[in-house]
Design brief:
Helices cover 44% and strands 22% of the residues. The protein is an alpha+beta fold. The protein starts with a strand and ends with a helix.
Length: 78
């Protein structure tokens, strides 16, 4: 499953999200919304106004969500 974290520089919640994904051993791709206008447009079209925005398969959410990251790690381990 492809996991994309849309973020921006110096984002506390983004950094916490990276650490949580790393701790769970999950691979992800980071997209910097300050450098990619098309990605920013996509994130806004999903209704999000804050980062990080995580897209994992058909699921997506915004903010630092340890519960979602844990559930994702559990699902990929099965």
């Amino acid at each position: 499953m492809m996991i994309i974290i849309y973020s921006k520089p110096d984002c506390v919640q983004c950094n916490a999200t990276y650490r949580a994904f790393d701790k769970q051993g999950l691979d992800y791709q980071v997209v910097d919304l300050t450098q990619d206008q098309q990605a920013l447009t996509h994130v806004k079209s999903l209704g999000y106004q804050q980062v990080p925005v995580i897209i994992a398969g058909d699921d997506h959410w915004s903010g630092f969500r340890p519960d979602k990251i844990g559930a994702l790690a559990h699902a990929t381990a099965s």
